[in-house]
Amino acid sequence: MTARPRLIPPGDPATRxxxxxxxxxxxxxxxxxxxxxxxxxxxxxxxxxxxxxxxxGLSVALVESHDLAHGTSRWSSKLVHGGLRYLAKGDIGVxxxxxxxxxxxxxxxxxxLIHSIPQVVxxxxxxxxxxxxxxxxxxxxxxxxxxxxxxxxxxxSGRIVTRGLAQRLVPTIRTxxxxxxxxxxDCQLEDDARLVVAIARTAAKFGxxxxxxxxxxxxxxxxxxxxxxxxxGQFRINARTVVNATGVWAGQxxxxxxxxxxxxxxxxxxxxxxxxxxxxxxxxxxxxxxRYVFVLPQRDxxxxxxxxxxxxxxxxxxxxxxxxxxxxxxxxxxxxxLERPLTSNDVVGSFAGVRPLVVAQDGAPKGSSADISRxxxxxxxxxxxxxxxxxxxxxxxxxxxxxxxxxxxxxLTAGISxxxxxxxxxxxxxxxxxxxxYGNEAPRVWAIGSKDPSLREPVADSVAVLxxxxxxxxxxxLALNVDDLIHRRTRLGLVPADAAAAVEAAExxxxx
Length: 512
Known about the structure:
The protein is α+β, with helices and mostly antiparallel strands. The chain is built from 14 helices and 18 strands. It has helices at residues 19-30, 44-55, 84-88, 92-109, 128-147, 163-169, 192-205, 324-335, 395-403, 432-438, 442-447, 467-476, 482-489, 496-511, and strands at residues 35-40, 60-64, 79-80, 114-124, 159-162, 178-189, 209-212, 214-220, 223-228, 233-244, 262-270, 280-284, 292-297, 302-306, 310-311, 347-355, 376-381, 384-389. The strands form two sheets. Strands 3, 4, 5, 6, 11, 12, 13, 14, 15 and 16 form a ten-stranded mixed sheet that branches. Strands 1, 2, 7, 8, 9, 10, 17 and 18 form an eight-stranded mixed sheet that branches. It is globular, with a radius of gyration of 22 Å.
């Protein structure tokens, strides 16, 4: 019998991250306090390493030059998926690892941030053979789901559905020649940036010092010289081991690392444009076995559609932009399965992230970036450990493999639930959005508005974000400026018009 996961009580003060705690942790480290592990990078990998190491009893500091989830981690498809694509390509190891980690995250680590979503592969007259391959793939995925002990009832088995049910799941699906659909199931993440913040706060519960706006200037065997970009001051953090978890920027700290960055772009459309779909329309990319473009409906009235997989040439920007060619390509592919093709006028936003794909050990190219394995790699350079590659779903396994290089103590994170996980208060009138995004901390978020009821209202017309979310981000989630609130704590920035409408409320929240 598997032991129950360790839950963190809602409101635990040790999980609270804000400007005051950052200042105290900064002063302690600047005063010469040494740590066992210094993590450089505040994305999914870096925060995962910080939590793993701290939960094993190591003293930990994490520094991030920008904000939590500022880089690639917030630009994912927001899926915690079972690796079906990798299975189709014969990468059974990555597929199995993905299925195992999906089960752990969905059942124990972050169940409050996970829900199931049906993947709808339309079957048209003439493409029955390809549909059969999709059905076989979903069947193989079901077998791995069972073997990975995914909670019964979370992910139903894949099945063939009628034309009518396919239309109910995706109302704007192209009906000419439509015979039905193959439907499989996977796990959808409420928000990738929220997952990173929850991991960071859970690491703080175990004593990790989380310092954003802190840039590593120079790394040595004794630790690192860092610059506080809020006041331009520099100091040394003494550490026994440095972990380079900077993703696509890993080569800046370790020039021996060779990556082949890949750009993945998505577009954003209003859900009503697609008839408010309940399923993820899944369309095969012609000429590319195992590659698909997905319509991923979100619970806030948006759909993300993606994604591309193209090599990146030149330097890596802090905030990548989806090229117009990627946007046009996504529109073209997905429109082949829609009753009314999308146009650029339907696109209300876009985003792109750069994947830190690891070049083969022999340095030889391996075809397109879409063909490069999503396995992670761990390399040593003196007292620095660099971890690169991998993907969001397997962040916990990546972190475990890193910390195993540092200590013989066993990994505990499979049995640690993130802040927010745990039973909900029954019969509460708290908005469903808060339960989805904050789990059992929703009452604490809602309570912020008890003295000022205006904070329980949306921060701008036609958006779902409430004023209490800005206040909670500032007081509990280390949001240090307006951009942190808009772009990473609430994701309003995915639609520029929504972000612009909310700036005034965000500025007011940061002044309070």
